[in-house]
Amino acid sequence: MRVLAITHEEHAGPGVFGEVIREVGHSLEEWMVPTEPEPPADPLGYGAVLVLGGAMNVDEGDEHRWLHTERRIVGELLEREVPLVGLCLGGQMVASAAGAVPRRAPRPEIGWHMVELTDAGREDPVVGPLAPAFEAFQWHSYEFPLPPGAAALARSEVSLQAARIGESAWAMQFHPEVTKADALRWTADFGSDADAVRIGVDPDALALEIEAKMDAFNELGRGICRRWLDVAAGA
Question: Which class is domain 2-234?
């Protein structure tokens, strides 16, 4: 199966999802939308599509004109029922294309936060095995509300964390794909995020937490990716 990863920044790539995709024998192609006007192939021709994160927000289309193009493509993927998962910014993009209006969250979630599954989440083929709850690495100031007709799968104290649109698309707010190296890089560069500075992120303390927790969290992320690929392969 050919998988497309839609990326937005150099250090926000497919991470452990990319590792799993290749390990199980699928091919992975990446499209860095801000710098590459055209994808490597027609996005509708892939067996599955992964939409990743970035420091920009979905409502910043005036500043990042490519967001409009990407949203249109994600909408076409949803319409054609191409297996799809969006993570953080990507989750907001998928939710937006499904009819939700992402917005600023009541407060940022940066670092490790508990996530609880809903009843629907416990039955979901991708996130269900994480029940009843898990700790997730997060870095976001925006959230997505539940799109019309979608199933809410998981929530934190602050925001919706996972939703399923139809039978083949997922939007997630946390970062199951992030590698330890990228998480540490984001933490070292926390000063470029005004919200991280405002809420008083302690980069040294957060780096220690990442060192202690990321290996186990990466196994959780690999499981999510494997189950998503299983659904995609059967679609």
Answer: alpha beta
Mean pLDDT of 165-188: 97
Q: List, for residues 109-132, the tens digit of each pLDDT value.
A: 999 999 999 999 999 999 999 999
Assign 63 a pLDDT band (cuts: 50, 70, 90).
confident
Q: Which residue has the tokens 């500075």?
A: 197
Instruction: Dig out the tokens for 81 from the structure.
Output: 């029922």
User: Phi, psi at residue 167, to the nearest 5°?
Assistant: -110, 0
Q: Are strands 151-155 and 27-32 parallel, antiparallel or unpaired?
A: unpaired
Name beta bridge partners: 114. 135
How many angstroms separate the CA atoms of 219 and 11, rounded?
20
What's the pLDDT tens digit per position in 67-122? 999 999 999 999 999 999 999 999 999 999 999 999 999 999 999 999 999 999 99
| R_g of the chain, CA atoms, integer Å | 16
The H or E element spanning position 72 is helix 66-80
Enclosing H/E stretch for 208: helix 203-234
Strand-pair partners of 169 = 84, 165
DSSP 43: G
pLDDT band at 26 (very low <50, low <70, confident <90, very high): very high
In this structure, what token pair is assigned to residue 161?
């964390």
- Structural domain spans, the chain: 2-234
For helices 180-188 and 203-234, the axis angle rounded to 10 degrees is: 140
